[in-house]
Structures are given as structure tokens and as C-alpha cells.
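Quick log. Single chain, no ligands specified.
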Amino acid sequence: MGAEAKIVLSWLMFGGTHIIGSSIRVRTYLIETLGLIRFKVLYSVIAFATFLPLCYVYFLEKHAGIQLFTPTIELHYLAQALILFSFITLFQGLMTLNTQTTLAELTGRFPEQARGIQRITRHPQNFSFSLLGIAHCLVLPFVGDWLFFGGFVVYGVLSALHQDRRARVTGPEAVKQFQAETSFVPFAAILTGKQRLAFSEYHVIGVVVALGLYITLSIFHGLLFGGFGG
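-> predicted structure:
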């Protein structure tokens, strides 16, 4: 089996088990059988058990296939800006209670009103994964690299769409209100006047942590993985 096929198969294993496990019928059955917390634990274990091999396969096979283009210095600068933005988006998403997340389901807290990064998109984590994938595709020009990091873009979009559909069916009324007032596509709700940026609602600690992670990676990424400060 070729390197590119191994990467695609690994993505299908991770993405397939992730989406099937969270489908309405399978998810409902497992929660009724195991309970919510045990289901969440099982779901997380399967996710790690399929994601780690995906990463392992890529690092064994990275830069596989033909070279599609030659990255320019401008693309490197753009990629680094996207990476920083993805970190900020990720930590803002993690620090702001979202009515469609596991935390909301476990605590029973389903806020109807969007805050902070949710005003840009109701799927900040998925958005950050997609940004990270796009950034790497800009500077890693081989087919194998695009299959691996492009998978983050595809997975980010498909899993968000899947989550929206499931939440509308199984979630409380607050979920429908939340979806009506926010956007799947980043910045769409702001451009249509449903939302505003509201930078005052952002978590300063989240920005600091994101900057710290970005600086740390800019120092050690080249040593560990090559590129990006190396």
C-alpha cells in the first residue's frame, strides 16, 4: 500500500469512527446502555486510538508523493499568521461555554446567547483545526502533506455539519436558538448583522496562552518537526 493510501485510510478510520459514534442512532443506543459519562469516555478512547496511528503514519510517510508547488516566503508568513489565529480561536472556544459541547451536556448548562468567539462561528474548535490544516498546506507542497493536513479541513467542516444536525434533533430548545443566532460559516453572522465582534467578551488568559504556545512552537518546531522557525 502506498504512503498516500495509508494516510487516507488512517483518516477514514479516525473520521469514520468519530462520526458514526456520534450519529443519532448509535449515540442514543450507547448512552442508554452505558450512561452519558461512560459513553463519553469510550468515545474519547476510540478517538485517541484512531488519531494517534493517523499521526504516526503521517510522520513515517511525510513529504510523500509528488511536489505540487514551491512555497514562497509570503506563504510562510501567511501560514504563521493563520497558525497564531488558529491558536487564539481554539483557546477562546475552549474557555467559552458552548451550548453544543460535551461540557454543556454534562453540566446541563445550555446558554442561548453567543459570546466572544462564538459570534464569529459556533464551531470555534473546528474552525481552528481547519485553519491549522490550511496553514500547513500553504507551506508543505507534497501530496502526502496535503492529504494529512487537508484532512483537518475536511474533518473540521464535516464534523461541524454533523454536530449541527444532531444537536438540532437531540438538543434542548436552547440549541435551536443558539444556531439561529450564530453562523456555521465564520463571520457570516457578523456580516449579516446577527452578531457583532464584541472583543470585550474575549478571554485575556486565552490570548496569552495562545501567544505563549505560538512562541514556544516557533522555537522548537524546527527541532522537532522541521520548518516553522527551524
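Residues 1-61 form one domain.
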